[in-house]
Write a structure and sequence with these properties.
single chain, 216 residues, NADH Oxidase, 5-stranded antiparallel β-sheet, 5 strands, 12% strand, globular, oxidoreductase, oxidoreductase activity
Length: 216
């Protein structure tokens, strides 16, 4: 498929989380998802192990089952102090942004099972048990590839949302998908064509507030 005429900077700064604007009624060709995954496989991997596995879910019953687990997990998250719309309430500008994020997240949570394609990036982990201590190297061999998938999808007119709340029910989702015991899930990426085309860079804190050179 011909990609959108986006510069590298445009692609990187306008690949946004898409929730309310996912087109739940338009089918997504599996070949298009495969194109995006081919790009994702070019991402870096520790020691070049390439231990990633990709589960692409299109079956309606499986999508509904995963969506229900996601909805349950979101309900607990939304009631917690960690939810998006609970943050920065003392900052009027950021509070409004957080309210919109919380609203769109709730919208997706109710419809996750209706999204045409669910992509789960996974890793094979020896024995199926995650190691203790710092796991940056482990997930650093998967998450860049998952983000590359999202970028490739954006370039092809697809929207995605980086989610992980389903991991509260990782074991149950693994049973739905028949995953081997040594396969662990890293994220859940709902994928669909999007409506409209007004993506722009998101508001972020100034670089100078988070930049440290040489020392903290």
């Amino acid at each position: 498929m011909t990609t959108l005429p986006l510069s590298p900077d445009e692609l990187l700064t306008t690949t946004r989380t898409v929730r309310k604007r996912l087109d739940l009624d338009r089918p997504v060709p599996l070949d298009l998802v495969r194109e995006c995954l081919e790009i994702a496989l070019q991402a870096p991997s520790g020691s070049n192990r390439q231990g990633w596995q990709w589960v692409v879910v299109t079956d309606p019953e499986q999508r509904r089952a995963i969506g229900e687990y996601y909805r349950r997990s979101f309900a607990a998250y939304a009631a917690s102090k960690a939810s998006a719309d609970s943050l920065y309430k003392d900052d009027p500008d950021r509070a409004e942004v957080q309210r919109r994020v919380g609203d769109s997240a709730a919208y997706l949570a109710e419809r996750m099972g209706e999204v045409p394609v669910l992509v789960l990036p996974c890793l094979r982990v020896e024995g199926g048990e995650l190691p203790g201590g710092n796991q940056a190297g482990l997930w650093g061999s998967l998450l860049p590839a998952a983000w590359s998938y999202a970028l490739a999808a954006r370039a092809r007119g697809l929207g995605t949302a980086w989610t992980s709340l389903h991991l509260v029910y990782e074991r149950e989702v693994a049973e739905v998908l028949g995953l081997p015991a040594d396969v662990r899930q890293g994220a859940l990426l709902p994928t669909a064509f999007y409506t409209g085309d007004t993506f722009r860079p998101a508001p972020r804190v100034p670089l100078e507030e988070v930049l440290h050179i040489d020392r903290w």
